[in-house]
Amino acid sequence: MLALQGDVREHLAVLSSLGADARTVRTPADARGIEALVLPGGESTTMSLLLGSSGLGTEIEKMVADGLPMLGTCAGMILLATEVLDGRSDQVSFGAIDVSVRRNGFGRQVRSFETDIDVKFLDRPMHAVFIRAPLVERTGERVEVLAEVDLPGSYGARYPVVCAEANVIVSSFHPELAGDSRLHELLLSKVEGD
After folding, report:
1. Of residues 11, 59, 174, 184, which has the active-site annotation?
2. Can you give the pLDDT of all 194 residues of the chain as single tens digits?
3. Is 74 a catalytic residue?
4. What pTM was estimated for this model as a whole?
5. Domains of the chain in sequence order
6. In what order do the strands lie in the sheet with 81-84?
7. Which of 60, 92, 113, 139 could form a disulfide with 143 if both were Cys (CB 3.0 to 4.6 A apart)?
């Protein structure tokens, strides 16, 4: 669990409820021996700066190259994306999943919303909490779109909000805030080899 900033406690609670031996990762030494990594929601610019100052950026680049299973939610999606369309010039993006994202693409804090979404492979809808959520504007050909939603005010245009590629899963929303552990379960299944 990347624990530099953001929804760390909430993700840890979900992972612990699933029986995972979850621990916080704040330094490269903390990352030794982990079998998966969750990159939480929070503030992507702050996380980006902390990844550089902590030395974890280089460590996560190695994890991506090694195919370590990862789940990125909200700001975590931004960090794992190939392209951040409106990020700072020094914005970290690890290129773990071939998507282009726009920070706060669903709107600022006052435009936060909740909705139920259908996610492929899940037997019932998932409640999704969108807070300053990133908007996926492009997906690569190997990316599987697992869920989409209408952008409020977009007259029916649908945008991906859960995507997967190889061992990486990303969501625009915060599953850890809705009491739904199914994306975390999907991550753990990748650790166990499906």
Report:
1. 174
2. 999 999 999 999 999 999 999 999 999 999 999 999 999 999 988 999 999 999 999 999 999 999 999 999 999 999 999 999 987 777 889 999 999 999 988 877 777 889 999 999 999 999 999 999 999 999 999 999 999 998 766 677 889 999 999 999 999 999 999 989 999 999 999 998 75
3. yes
4. 0.94
5. 8-191 (3.40.50.880)
6. 81-84, 97-102, 135-139
7. 139
